[in-house]
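tokens incoming
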């Protein structure tokens, strides 16, 4: 369970530092608008996204079991974070994140990192696509510039409320969002290693400012972004409060563990490496505890940012440390500029993130699989969107494991009464 950083430091050269620094700065430029957008979509203050990327990202790279993993807030958490804040307040989210961190530490100590292999792939695919649907729906208000007193948390009531507010449609907002999305796609295709996300969102926001378009920005809606890290503090804990928040903590820990280990496995294929799953679990636990102490959001390994790190040349955890430090520097010296980012531009960014997160290029392969796997994926997707993420995971994992046992021709249980 030794951190990868300790493995790579012996023999670390100036050339390695130069390469990792460039990669870290590149990833930071991608992570910056994403962290702000994810926090806003989660119902949190946008500054919480920056805090999470800084504290969580630094600890994941410092203590993690992957050479190139980048940690921070991710789209997968938007649903559970939003629901937790609505039900228990932001202080409840902080406590749940702290508890999730402790659960992940316990999982790491118990060497439970390889248990990811037991989660059926259709379940992971189903709730990932379901989360992507919810994220995209949550961004329609800002993309269309709709004016609404309140946005319902549940999917179907949200769609009804959006339709009811259609008369407040803002064409300038839609043009800003669509323009940002087109620019992101074009830059990604033309220069995959270039931090096109921050350029596209920045240009879209610049057009809004220069033309004085009637479009919301981060600052106009939420006020000024914080220009420094908050003072760490332990949330107010009580047994009753912890019992109330335990289900949310379990879901956060599950998502953090699953996504971080999936991201590490993707990274292994990209660099032909081998991550240490139990060290990664410990790092995720420490990162979530650290983020909660600073009032941040849940942390996990971010697949897209990790892939960006690899493509930019990052090969050691130093790149992740540079990424977190760069975001901290931006917070300290350029918070007012970041506050000028336009809400429709961030909405377009998140909708594209949701689309990529659902991996549409794999849909045909999913449909060509076993019928039971297709049904399991569809059931998990529907439960995620229309019911609850906790229910979706519980039902999906239970049915998936039952199907796995059935495929192995497990013998039926012996219910013969025993002689006393």
């Amino acid at each position: 369970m030794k951190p990868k950083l300790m493995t790579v430091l012996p023999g670390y050269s100036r050339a390695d530092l130069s390469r990792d620094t460039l990669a870290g700065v590149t990833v930071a430029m991608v992570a910056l608008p994403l962290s702000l957008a994810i926090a806003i979509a989660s119902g949190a203050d946008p500054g919480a996204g920056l805090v999470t990327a800084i504290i969580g990202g630094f600890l994941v790279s410092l203590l993690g079991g992957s050479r190139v993993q980048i940690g921070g807030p991710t789209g997968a958490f938007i649903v559970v974070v939003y629901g937790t804040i609505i039900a228990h307040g932001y202080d409840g989210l902080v406590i749940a994140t702290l508890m999730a961190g402790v659960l992940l530490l316990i999982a790491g100590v118990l060497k439970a990192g390889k248990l990811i292999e037991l989660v059926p792939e259709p379940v992971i695919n189903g709730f990932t696509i379901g989360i992507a649907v919810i994220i995209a729906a949550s961004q329609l208000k800002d993309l269309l510039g709709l004016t609404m007193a309140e946005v319902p948390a549940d999917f179907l009531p949200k769609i009804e409320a959006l339709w009811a507010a259609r008369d407040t449609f803002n064409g300038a907002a839609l043009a800003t969002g669509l323009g940002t999305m087109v620019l992101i796609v074009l830059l990604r295709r033309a220069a995959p290693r270039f931090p096109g996300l921050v350029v596209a969102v920045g240009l879209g926001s610049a057009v809004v400012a220069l033309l004085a378009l009637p479009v919301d920005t981060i600052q106009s809606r939420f006020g000024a972004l914080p220009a420094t890290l908050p003072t760490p503090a332990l949330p107010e804990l009580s047994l009753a409060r912890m019992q109330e928040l335990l289900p949310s903590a379990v879901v956060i820990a599950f998502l953090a563990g699953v996504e971080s280990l999936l991201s590490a496995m993707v990274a292994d294929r990209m660099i032909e490496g081998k991550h240490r799953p139990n060290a990664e679990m410990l790092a995720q636990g420490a990162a979530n505890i650290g983020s909660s102490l600073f009032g941040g959001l849940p942390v996990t390994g971010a697949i897209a940012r990790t892939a960006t790190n690899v493509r930019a040349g990052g090969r050691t955890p130093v790149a992740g440390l540079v990424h977190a430090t760069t975001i901290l520097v931006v917070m300290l010296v350029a918070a007012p500029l970041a506050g000028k980012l336009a809400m429709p531009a961030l909405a377009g960014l998140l909708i594209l993130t949701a689309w990529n997160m659902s991996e549409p290029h794999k849909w045909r392969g999913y449909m060509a699989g076993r019928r039971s796997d297709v049904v399991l994926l569809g059931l998990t997707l529907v439960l995620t969107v229309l019911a609850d993420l906790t229910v979706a995971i519980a039902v999906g994992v239970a049915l998936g494991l039952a199907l796995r046992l059935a495929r192995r021709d497990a013998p039926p249980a012996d219910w013969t009464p025993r002689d006393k």
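note: The chain has a mean pLDDT of 89.
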